[in-house]
Amino acid sequence: MATLEIGGIDCQRLAEISGTPLLVYDEAKIEQQFTAATENFQSDQFETEVVYAAKAFSCKAIFEKVRQAGAGLDVVSGGELYCAHQAGVPMEKVYFHGNNKSEEELKMALELGCGTIVLDNKMECQRLTELAAQLKKPIQVLLRVNPGIEAHTHEYIRTSGSDSKFGISIAKKNEIKSLVSQAMLSDYVQFKGFHSHIGSQITETTAFEEALAIMLGFIREMRDDYNIQTRSLSIGGGFGIRYTADDKPIPLGEMADILARTCEKLSAEKGVRLEKLLIEPGRSIVGEAGYSLYTVGYSKDTDTKHFLFVDGGMSDNIRPALYQAEYSCDIANRLGEPKNKTYCVAGKNCESGDILVKEAELPDTAREGDLLVMYATGAYGYSMASNYNRAGRPEVVFVKDGKARRVLRRETYEDQLRLDTDEQLTI
Ligand code: LLP
């Protein structure tokens, strides 16, 4: 009977020291993904930049890894921006996204010296130009546009693109032109180019190739029809990972290489010269590096199901409940035993939908006290965790070469109470 090791460490030992639920990251895997992306996303025709999408998983420790990898950082809130600043991420490498950034957030970005704001709409452009002038702070901008493709896991469909809450449809060329002209009038705002993001967990290249073709065509039209010069193009993130054996994603390095080559080829065909191409991977950097460890508690049989209950659930990973996302799992201390029974792995939150894995093939010897591992939980698990039922958020450890370090401590009852207050408001 073998026990799972992560980064050269026995999982049971980690659970003994840190308790469960526990989120373990294999640091070497994160580093490999950064290297795969940066080394393969290269061109001798334009500059390239890999920008990590913080929303997939953010904390100071991962931001330090972003800094070490020399990558850029995509943030979408004052909170992510603050954390990035505290972690020592060079502010000029930060891209601030979002469809409704507040005045406070824009001011904070300008004051901290954030490199690029990804503008989402006309009102925001107006607000930013005013604030940049007021504070006398220079800022580069990209404009998020919508190329009319929305990609899903296995297929992609064309949508009108006009009803997304993000960005402006590329069909609205006049609106885009007037926004860019407004930005260009400002002494402080420097228009750099466009941004598009077509979806997430995309496992094939077709939708990205199509998006690149559409964006480069659009860039040519903006140049020829409106004299708008585009220096940079970001094609967003969305590169898929392997959650279960059914997922067959293209490895990140290969994807990065294909995108750089496709952009070179299409730019030549369309007569467009870019100075810089960017990608924004989140999930594909941290997803497969993350392992959630849970302790098995009670089990029960119904007429149709064998339930196995674990000590976490939708409060630390809402993806199965929210998106019917599928994961694979094992009994970490029973590797090698025959997987001869189908269990329904359920969490402990007070909601019937709190099922982590609907049908998990596990050994029939699984019992209370065992350690259940869910694979590929490194993206959008912790970052979407909640305190539902006043469940504390799990501890997070990074492991590498037989060493482990705690990067986020377990949330305690006291931590949760620190927000409770009783203050008279002056009305
Ligand atoms: N860039 C932009 C502008 C984005 O909106 C996103 C993701 C990314 C980059 C990173 O995408 P990634 O490489 O991680 O797929 N909560 C959902 C995913 C939401 C993605 C939102 N935007 C989930 O758990 O599947």
Automatic annotation (TrEMBL):
Domain of life: Bacteria
Enzyme Commission number(s) from the entry: 4.1.1.20
Residues recorded as bearing N6-(pyridoxal phosphate)lysine in the entry: K55
One Pfam family here: Orn_Arg_deC_N
Cofactor: pyridoxal 5'-phosphate
Entry binding sites for pyridoxal 5'-phosphate: G238, E280, P281, G282, R283, Y380
Positions annotated to bind substrate: R283, R319, Y323, E351, Y380
Name of the featured protein: Diaminopimelate decarboxylase
Species of the source: Anaerovorax odorimutans
